Task: structure prediction
Amino acid sequence: MIVRGSRQLSELYDRLSPGDVYIGKIPGGPLRYTRLIDLMERGIHCLPTPLAQTLNASKAAQTAILNEWMLPLTQVIRRRADLIAAIGVYQRQGVGPVVTKEDRLHCGHGVRYWENIEVLYSMAAFDKSSFPFVLQPFLQHFSDVRVIVVGDYVEAYSRHNPDNFRMNLAAGGTSRPFVIGTDQQLFCRSVMERARFPYAHLDLQLLENGRCYLAEMALEGGIKGAQIDRRSLVRMKSELLEREARQICNSEGSAAGRQEAEAKNLYEGGRT
Result:
């Protein structure tokens, strides 16, 4: 059975059985992750995957799981002790200005610049509510590129903001089309595979020496600088999830059929 959308999920929640598929995000609120875990334990497939939905909601979770694709020294600060440890590492590496990102904010909100990590500590030490957050060195010379990947469709555009280090278009940035290379596409695909994202909006930091780093990624995102329109993008995402759901159901059906045949053979073999 394929269940689509939160309303249908609520109506059929207790009737779902192993092998069923739910298409859609689990509704927000304090029970979101309880429901995700419950569905996983019951053998119900979620599209997007539980991992993708978890990472989509948290910059800190992305940093913890996808750190190898991010700018070196990017880390999650969970408490003051983590920040104290980071001070030593950053000082030894000669890191000057730093950037922090609040965990669950988007569109450039919650992204802050600090002259150095000691200034950051002076603030964070008095505000326990700021934890957890993402800490990374301030990167000055790079190209900010957003990549949209849905199946075989790939589109990219660069973002610029001469008046603000936040490149987001919502923060006053401008955009222009960007020709993404093969290596960069492979980079995006590898990140998506690890994060179990069926599709993604990925923000990349491209350095002049050719290195590429992941800033963050999301299942949904602004497309103000993209050529594709919102309706077409939503349709492509929906069609992709429907294909994946049918593949899962067909696979589950084939497996159930094989198990039934094996059980029948064992039964008939025992009778002879």
Q: What stands out?
A: Residues 72-137 form a domain with the Dna Ligase; domain 1 fold (CATH 3.30.1490.20). The helical segments are 5-12, 32-41, 50-56, 59-65, 80-92, 117-124, 182-195, 230-271.
